[in-house]
Amino acid sequence: MGKVMKWGGIALGAVVVLIVGAVVLVPMFVDVQKYKPEIEALVTKQTGRTFSMGDDIKLSVFPWVGVQLSDLALGNADGFDGGDMISVKRFEVRLKVMPLLSREIQVDTFLMDSPQIRLVKNKAGKGNWENIGPAGTAKAKAADKKTQGTPAEGGMPISSLMVGTFSITGGKLAFNDKAAGSLTEIADLNLDLKDISLDKPVTVDFSAKLNGKPLSLAGTAGPIGAEPGKSDISLDLVVKALDALDLSLKGKLIQPATAQKFDLAVDLAPFSPRKLFEALGQPFPVDTTDPAVLNKVALKAGIKGDARAVAVSGGSMTLDDSTLTFTASAKDFHKPALTFDLNLDAIDADRYLPPGAQGQKTQSGKQAQPSGKTAKTDYGPLRKMVLDGKAVIGNLKVANMKMANVTVHLKGKNGVFDLDPFSMDLYQGTAGVKAQVDVRKNTPVTAVTMKLAGIQAGPMIKDAAAKEVIEGTLAADAGLTMTGDTPELIKKTLGGKGELTFTDGAIVGIDIAGTIRNATSGLGMTEKPAEKPRTDFAELKIPYTADNGVVSIPAASLISPLLRLGAKGQTNLAKEDLDFRVDPKLVATLKGQGDTKSRSGLLIPLLITGTYAQPKIRPDLKAMVGKQLPTDKEGLKTLLQGGGSETTDGKQESVEEKAKGLIKGLFN
Length: 668
Hints:
This protein is an alpha+beta fold. Helix content is 17%, strand content 47%. The N and C termini lie far apart (152 Å).
C-alpha cells in the first residue's frame, strides 16, 4: 500500500511537472509563425475576403492565456477600391487560466489599437459589407438557418467576471455613400471601460470626432448581475455632441432579457437645431418663414414602458420663446391607442410655417398659390387609431389671426374624430366650435357647428385676409358640412345653414348711400372719392344656406340711419362669382338698431355681380324706371315722412329742398 501511494505521488508529481513544463516551455519552443498561413487561409475561407496578419505574433499560456497580434487586415469586396475594409494595428488579450476551473473569468488586458473600418456603398446601392461569409452551398446555408435562433439553455456559464484594462484607441469608421455623394467619418475613437465586473457599475468613457466635431459619452452602467439580462441595469450617462448637444440619461433597464422594460429620465439641455445641422455640414431640413426660429430647444421628461406601451410624464419642452408642459402615453402600437395632455403658454405658429404657405402673404400682399399636385392622403393609419387628447394654449397666432385661452379636446376611434370642445377668446369675443371628421372612407367628411359672440370683425378679417371688408361686433350661430381635404373640393361640397349678425359697424369699400345719391357713381362716371367708401350701419343680419358650394342668402337686412337695406342672392364658392340684389330704402329717421317700425321710402335697387376679385356694384336702372316716383310736393313729403331735418349749420332743411337734392342726385 505504501509503495502504491509512493508511486502514485510520483506519477502525480510527474504529470504536474509535465503540465507546468508544457505551459512554460511550449510558447518558447513552438514556432507560432508556422501556423500563420493556416490561420490566414481559414479566416479567408470563412469570410470570403482576403485576410492577413503581421509577423509580430506572441503567445502565452501560463499564468495568463494571452495572444498578441499585429497588422490585421480584412480585404475589400471585389469591385471596391480604397484599401482594406477592416484593419487593426495591434490586438492583445490576456486571460488568467486557473480561475477558469471555477467558472471565473479574469481578463488582465483587452486592447485594440487603431482599428479602422471602411464602409462603401457604390452608385448601384451595393455595400462592401454585404455577403461576408463562405461562398457555401445551399446545404450550408440551410444548416445555418437551422441553427439560427436556437436559444442557449441555462444561465451564464461563469460565476464572476473581472476585467483589468479594456481599451480601444485611435479608431476610425468611414462611410462613403457614392450613390448620395456623402462621406461620414468618425475618427479619433477612444473607449475605456473600467471596473468591469458582474456586481459593480461599469465606468464608461467614450470620445470621438464626427466629421471633425467632438462626440463623447461618459458615466456608469450596471451592474449587469450574475445572470445578465435577468437583473435591472442602472444607467447614468451624459452624451455630448458636436459642441451643440448635451443629453443626460438616468434610470434603469428592467430585466432586459425577460421583462424588457425601461424607466428613464431624459434631460436635453438647451441647444440650437440650426447650429447642430451646421456642425454636421448638412442643410437644415425645415424651411421656415422666420429664419430665427428653431434656435433654442430643450426637453425634460420621464419615459417608462416596454415593447407594448410607452408613457411620458412630467414633460417640459422649450421651443424658442414658448414653453410646453405635457404628459402622453401610447400602447398597442399595431393599433395605437394614444393619449396626451398639453399646456402651451404662447406660440406664433406663422413663424414656423414654410414661406408662401396658406395664410401667408407675399410682399405684394397677394395670396401665395400652391404649385404642383398634392399627394393623396392615406387615412388607413387613422382608422386604426384610438385617440383621447387635450390641449390648452394661452396665446396662439396662426394664419395671422390672434387667439387666447384656446382649449381643445380631441377624441377618435374607428376613423371618426370628434373635436368637442374647441373654444377660445377671439378679438374681444368668444368662439365655441364642435366638429367631427369621418375618415372611414378615402374622402373625409367634416361637420362643424360654431357659436361666436362679441367678436370685433374688422380687426379679425384684416389680420386673416389682409383686407378691410366689414367692421362691427360679430355674433353667429352657424353649421357647416364639407367633403374632401383640399380647398377646391371643400368649396364644391360645402353645405349647412346659419346666421351672422354684425352690430354697430360698417361695410368697407361700398357707399350705398352715396351710390343712391348719385347714380352715376355706381356707373363709374364720376371721380373716385379720396377716402375709401363705406356704409355705416347699426345692425346687419345675414342668414344663409349652403348646398354643394352654392351659398344662398334669402333675406339679409341692414339697419342704418336714413337707410334700410334688404339683400338676397347667391354665390358659387368654386367659381367665386357673385349674384346679389340689394334693395335699399331711404327713410326719414335717424334711428338705427332697435327701430322695428315699418318705414316707407324710395327703393333704388342695386345689383352686385362680378367676382370676389373684381366685384361690380351698380344701380338697377330698369327697376328704377319701372317705379312710380311722386312728382308733387305732398307726395315727396309723404315719401320722406316727417319733413325737414337739420343741416350741419343747425338750420332746418325743408322737405322741398331735401326732395330737390334727392332727385338731383338721382338723375343728374
